[in-house]
Amino acid sequence: MNYSGELFLKLMEEKPLRPASQLLQSVLILGGAAFFLCNAQAHDFQRPKRLVLIHGILNGPKEFNHLLDFIKQDFPLMNATALDGFNYANSVFPLWEQVDYFSKMLESIMNQTSDSIILLCFSQGGLICRGVLSVLPHNVETFIALSCPLAGQYGDTNYLKYFFPQLLKHDLYKFFYTYKGQTWSFGNYWNDPHHHERYMNYSDYLAVLNNETANPKSGDFKENFLRLKRLVLIGGPDDGVITPWQSSHFGFYDQNEAVLDMTQQTWYKDDSFGLHTLNKRGSLHFCTVPGVKHTHWHRNMTVYEKCIKPWLD
Cα–Cα distances in Å, from 187 out to 4, 135, 150, 158, 177? Predict the structure, then answer.
């Protein structure tokens, strides 16, 4: 109880007032009751939203420890949950399997609370969250995509070299654009601009999620994705993993490897999965931070203060 509330109760516990003051006492009691009611309603209205986090590739929920510490300092009452599943080596499993698992976890959280949910997803986790938000009739209010290859990936990175040391980016399509290649999470969002036809024929995740290929659930995907009120897109030119880094803002290469921004992508122009509609609503918010390496996004105070904190309140 705040100080004014304690003072009010103390006054009411004093010795009885004289008859001439009984009317004033009644007014004070009624006024105090109204004050407490308004205070309670305001407190309920301002209570923190539920925050759910999904980790990136070759990692687990502990990667969010620094970020959660930042959040607890500013929002001590916020109920935040970093989902535990498909951690570390298991994160290379097919993305639809991961979407199914995390959808069930998010649905369970939704059934436990009427609060709106903020979904914060890092790296590959952002593509998983895109899938969850497409298949699930959700009550997620804000989706914060923290350095995610949302439009796909095409680049030589340490992650890929670890698993495929003999292959460079211009060769990976030969494996990823096969049925076996699509059993790897990397392959699910590999987007080779020089082999678009093979991408369309074999991509069973990103192309489906973008509604670029025939999909009987395309209408549901779009309707569910449009339940979002805000989509926050965070990335930067010094990431070093997301390639091109503009994929974190839904930009991507053309066949000459020139980067085209989101508005020049076919699936945006056609509003295939609702991104154009969200933009027209004013629901898209971009945040670019230079000088941040890929593994530092969730532990960088500048990123938190500039790009994440404003959307948690």
Answer: 61, 20, 14, 15, 7
